[in-house]
Amino acid sequence: MHSRRSYLRVAAAGSVASSAMFLTGCLGDDNGDDGADDEFPSENFNVTIPWGQGGGTDIFTRQIWQTIADQNDVGAQFENVTGAAGMRGITELYNSEGNGYNLAPMNSPSVSHFLIQEPGFTIDEFRHIGGYARTVWVLATDPDEGFEGLDDVSDAYDAGDISNIAGQQPGEPNHVLSELIRDELDVQWDSYVAYDGSGPIIEAIAGGEVPAGIVTDTAAADAQDQIDVVTALHSEGTPLFPDLSNYTDYGHEVDIDFMGGFLRSFMAPPDTPDDRVDELTVLLQEALESEEMQEWAEDTGNEVEFLGGEDYVEDVLVENQERIPEIIDIDDL
Amino acid sequence: MVTGSLLSALEILFSWPTPGWMILGLLAGILIGAIPGLGPNLGLAIVLPLTIRLDGPDAIILLISIYSGAMYGGSIAAILINTPGTAAAAATTLDGYPMARQGRALDALTISATASAVGGLFAIVTLLLLTPYLTQIVLLFGSPEYFLIALFGIALITVVARGSMVKGLTAGAFGLLLSTIGFPVAAGQPRYTFDSYLLFDGLDFVAVLIGIFAIGEMIKLIGERGTIAKGGVDMSGSVLSGARDVVRAPITTIKSGYIGMLIGAIPGSGASISNFISYAEAVRSGGGEEEYGEGNYRGVIASEASNNGTVAGSLIPTFSFGIPGSGATAILLGGLVMHGLNPGPELFTTNVDITYSVFLALLVGNAVILAVGLLLVTRSAYITRVNTTYLVPLIIVFATLGALGLRGNWLDVITVLVFGIFGFFLMRYNYSIIAFVLGIILGPIAEENLVRSLQLSDGSLLIFVDEPISLVLTVMTILIVIAPLVRAIRSS
Q: What region holds the DUF112 domain (chain B) (predicted)?
């Protein structure tokens, strides 16, 4: 079950190792520089956080980049540039200099906002440093309904016993996922009801306002006494619910992983040079695997691991970019 | 079990350095709240990363103390210079500032401190008693109930709109209209943004409030000479006389504390709403020697008791479901998560001692607010004797800088200036400012929950009467709307 993840880890490690070797070679080249640029990082990192202070992304970003800065004897400056569902901060990063010091976190669900808001650039123009955490979406239900698995939920919709499904605003990943599970997993819900985040969705499910909804595994784990979690919407399942079946366990051979996993990563402006991106990837991996980060992850429950470098992150984000418009009509939201 | 948890909580709260963090948080909160435009959100955002080295309970108690202190601190500038330090104190300006103009700033400041402490106290004691049942209580309220509470607030326009009802409704409707700018929860596309990111999240109503109350009043003061306290008026009142006013209005104080708690518990709302609803209710129930809006001490009590009650209420959805009721509680929630305290049942079972310690910190914090308010803050009343030539430019600078600090969005600076002029004309032509404010702050909550309720009921309006709570709310709203008509018929 975990073979793909293991493969990715090995591939990423290999890629980072070769990048490091490549860099070592480059450092020995006589490229005409005076040598000052060889020291990287030698300045403070400027980290733009497109979401609010205290949120999950803010907490991860500050911890990871402060650790990287400390490990390299430089500083890190953080600025929360919020608004427009993260696009204000992302636009600021897009327009900043690609010198290896300007960077920002990116969450795969934001791809839909590139499509909705059409900012004049696309996600594949950025340079991607690496993925550091994955959150898995799960299907949660009202305990009073007594559903034991995905098939029960599907049967209840077919029989007309229930009709609504809850998620976030139209265009958000749980909306796209709800369309995917209707089309691909035959969960024939009638009406999509939008809430403002996983917390309100869980409250609505626990209060019996809606029979089922799509929430993150982290939110569901905190509310296990109030809701039933019936299936993971990613083929690798979720470590937070090790015994939980995932959608492929029900015989579905389609692949909805691109949307069922919420990838957290970091990126840099489009004109950031290759060597700087590779170096940043190495720094990220070293920090994520450091004792300090792992202790922090254990203490706070915010799991981190190096998921892959630029190729891995870009594949996920570009697949989102290409497939979301096939699943939902962006102009009709 | 509850007694054991409470004893553990007391141990946490009174083990050094926790009391130090609590007092530091309260003082910092009062200061941040008193400076127009800063407010609890900015204060909490600055302090949050610094708490990383603290223990979980210390960090949360520090953050909650800043939040609570700022709720009270916001009233200081509201009373003295008609500039609400926070949106939560906007309604305090309505009677607090006229009191200052009459030379009763000292009274208004002591009323504010006492009402904040007493309103907060009742709300927190209730919260402590309800702690084992909080999750079940939250589940009694769903989208239809949230919509009906917002609608009830909008219906209060008929109560607060003194003079021309047409003008009141027009102001309220304009506020509602402005609240539709931005990205609604119910739809996937932004509205009325003219393709600008600046408008994507709509107008920040805190900037609107700063504009209307602060800049609007400054424009008015420019045309006058002298000081805020009108010429020839002596500074009167005492620490005791203000506190006595609160004792004279126990029902208003306690009721306002509970209104604040109830509104605070509604996701997406907060003290910026509760102080107006509570003020409107005070106007509806009457009392006091002065007219409301002309220096009635009950107006100050209503606003101030409610905003500190809101702090307790906002913790209910935050702790039980991880749903922040306001920007400040969103940051507080981040603090909880950052320190490995995940919201949900765990906070009411295995970590209940920490939860109780936070509630107790609020309880003790109210006593500190009372002491600081009565002994120190009252000395700031002399600001009303400073010549407006010096005050007006300072306040305009503070207001615009504060607006920029809200979201780092230049639109908020423009909003402050435009709505300053707008507010001046609202006052000049006797349009109801409260009606406008109720419209702009309640619009999004009403819209989101209305759309969702109708989705759930497949378009049937019966969803608003088919449960006891929703039925009561519907009846209350209808009564509020028809009351002026009935009064008019009876008087004719």
A: 21-438
Most confident of A1-10, A106-115, A284-293, B3-12: A284-293
Q: What is the DSSP letter of A243?
A: T
Mutate to test the interface with B, among A62, A94, A300 (most CBs of B within 10 A): A300
Question: Among residues 35-54 of chain A, which lie with CB inside 8 Å of chain B?
Answer: 52-54
Task: Please give the pLDDT value at position B305.
Answer: 94
Show the tokens assigned to B39: 């407010």
Mean pLDDT of B408-420: 90
Q: How far apart are CA A202 and CA A181, in angstroms?
A: 19
Query: Which of chain A's residues have a Cβ under 8 Å away from the Cβ of B342?
Result: 221-222, 301
Write the CB contacts of A107 (distance below 8 Å, at least 6 apart in sequence).
Answer: A57, A86, A262, A263, A264, A265
Q: Report the residue of chain B nearest A175, measured CA to CA.
A: B188
Contact between B48 and A226 using a beta-carbon 8 Å cutoff:
no
Average of per-residue pLDDT values in chain B: 85
Beta strand spans in B332-414 (E): none
Q: Do A222 and B330 touch (CB under 8 A)?
A: no
Percent of chain B predicted with pLDDT > 70: 94
Q: How far apart are CA B97 and CA B296, in angstroms?
A: 10
- For residues A110 and A73, give the distance between their C-alpha atoms in angstroms, rounded to a whole number: 32
B-facing residues of A in 145-164 (CB < 8 A) are 164
Cβ–Cβ gap A85/B135 under 8 Å? no
A35 vs B315, more confident: B315
Are B49 and A53 in contact (CB < 8 Å)? Answer: yes
Please give the ipTM for the structure prediction: 0.77
Dihedral, CA of residue B84, residue B89, residue B92 and residue B98, to nearest 10: -10
DSSP B155-170: HTHHHH--S-HHHHHH
For residues B217-221, give the mean pLDDT.
Answer: 84
- What pLDDT was estimated at residue A244? 95
The predicted model scores a pTM of 0.80
| B196/A contact by beta carbon, under 8 A | no
pLDDT recorded at residue B231: 55
Block residue for tokens 């209808």 = B478
| CA–CA distance, B247 with B260 (Å, rounded to integer) | 19
Q: Which residues pair with A193 in a beta bridge?
A: A166
Q: From residue A239, how far is each of A217, A296, B304 by CA, in Å?
A: 9, 18, 47
